[in-house]
Write a structure and sequence with these properties.
Layout (H helix, E strand, L loop, with lengths): L3 H14 L18 H14 L11 H21 L7 H20 L5 E6 L8 E6 H21 L9
Helix pairs in contact: 2-3, 3-4
């Protein structure tokens, strides 16, 4: 029993001293502004990135409504108080909670978000980790649908590629 103690202590020391390479990727804070002017610039940038083909294009309509409503509420709080420092503790807490909600919604729906699945290759029972970005997954789905539509149209008279 005592012989195992140094080995366990060494293993524990290695784990505790290891760099944070094992830690999860921190969530990027998209909304950070402390004055109404800075916040307006951030909101404009977010709205531009919610357009088709941009980073947050995959937001559902409900999430878009939520993000816009929260951003409007935050803008109103900043306009009323002038800055974060001038806010009461309760207002500041509400503002930061709203900020976290928006950051979470945007980070969860970003197109560069990495989605990993475990897939067993043909002829194997051992799953392999396969990671793709949300944009790659959406493009693959779009391409698959286009190919399926083309195959479905090939059997119809006058609809094939040679007609």
């Amino acid at each position: 029993m005592l012989r195992m103690f140094p080995a366990c202590a060494l293993a524990l020391a290695l784990v505790l001293c290891a760099p944070n390479s094992f830690a999860a990727k921190p969530v990027e804070k998209v909304v950070t502004a402390d004055t109404p002017e800075k916040f307006a610039a951030v909101v404009e940038k977010i709205h531009a990135q919610m357009e088709p083909g941009q980073r947050y294009e995959f937001l559902s309509s409900q999430d878009r409504k939520n993000v816009n409503a929260i951003l409007e509420r935050m803008a109103g709080m900043l306009a009323t108080n002038g800055s974060v420092e001038a806010m009461s503790e309760d207002d500041r807490t509400r503002l930061f909670n709203d900020q976290e909600k928006v950051n979470g919604l945007l980070a969860r729906n970003a197109d560069d978000r990495l989605v990993c699945t475990f897939v067993a290759p043909v002829g194997s029972h051992l799953p392999v980790k396969k990671c793709q970005t949300a944009r790659e997954i959406a493009e693959n789905r779009k391409q698959f649908r286009r190919q399926a539509d083309e195959l479905g149209n090939m059997g119809r008279v006058g609809q094939g590629p040679g007609n």
